[in-house]
């Protein structure tokens, strides 16, 4: 655990020690067979055979989940149904003992390996122990033994809440000593992300996010427990795992596909950044601003994700523009400017075959159109411009104004928002502008990738260059591709 900060090592050690205390009453276990007649609630009532059966089953499920066939995206707690079934059938200390083989022996892909194994075992031991205690207190043992499904459901609900609550509090606790990034390597500080990081890691948010999947696992665990105690015996209980394996396989395929999508987008953006270093990091920030607008407009998660892709890929057409034009040391001729203005069409040609992008492809093509019809490449006006393109146009102009450009210093966020509002109706959709104003007013602007992060400007920018009279700053920012260039040159 030498790679962990001192406070993180102390925290993990404390969790592991608490888990060991929960296991002590199970050692040694009495030789009471786990039969269909449930033992007394007050007694331990479990055998080594029953504990070993659950432990082997859980370890096998964990190993299978991390195999190539399933490829689980989550490193911890894949098969909670087995653990919860043990919590419904075994005394607290015996149920907690089930965790150890699977948690300690399952593969770990990231360092520090020992710390991750100890942390996984400790947190799950405490969670299963708490779940079993809650189930015991709610009278779940008698309900499972009698086959009283309504009563068993109530007790299982209490157990799931306890299980989820303990996991949430432990997971939230590890974020503090590791600076918001669990088990970060070395002493490298995580990238600050402002209020978004704080909001995303509150214990209540973590609890709500994990409650639904844990509830589903709890229902599967209850089915296993009821079948285990039924005349059909433990063999029937194993049948519950078959649909769980199928659903997990489908879930893993979804995550694989999503990871492939992200890799495709990342490769395209990196290629643009390499070719046009003066706007490095711009794509990620436009994607972030587009996401804020989409959420403020109440768009669903799937469409919001598509608009994030649109913002990230809006300048991918620069790959089709000659590098000499992007890096030209001097003003562009009208012919050269027309070549650069072809980049939306180049970008659309590049991404139109990528089906998962959906309406993001239209945003790539039309994000330089203006509401008054003075934009390019087709001079669309008003409602002719796709909604996704209107979102990206506002996000693009906002980031261009609030970033250090070769011809001017970054404008303060309030000044940039005022400029967008002034141009709303002529160049930008007022709905999109007001959505961005409301979103930033509520959460602030905390870009995950800044120009300095990308190494775009190693030193302070040069003095501002005089701007043309009569052309709004936001309009020029919306056409930022023609403004990019070597420091000190206004295109």
TrEMBL record:
Cited Pfam families: HD_5
Q: Where is this region: Disordered?
A: 450-491
Q: What transmembrane ranges does the database entry give?
A: 44-61, 82-106, 151-170, 206-228, 234-252
- Which CDD domains would you find in this protein's record? HDc (cd00077)
Domain named HD-GYP: residues: 257-452
- List where Low complexity composition bias occurs: 467-491
PROSITE patterns, sorted: HD, HD_GYP
The organism's place on the tree of life at top rank: Bacteria
Q: Which PANTHER family match?
A: CYCLIC DI-GMP PHOSPHODIESTERASE TM_0186-RELATED (PTHR45228), LIPOPROTEIN (PTHR45228:SF4)
Q: What is this protein called?
A: HD-GYP domain-containing protein
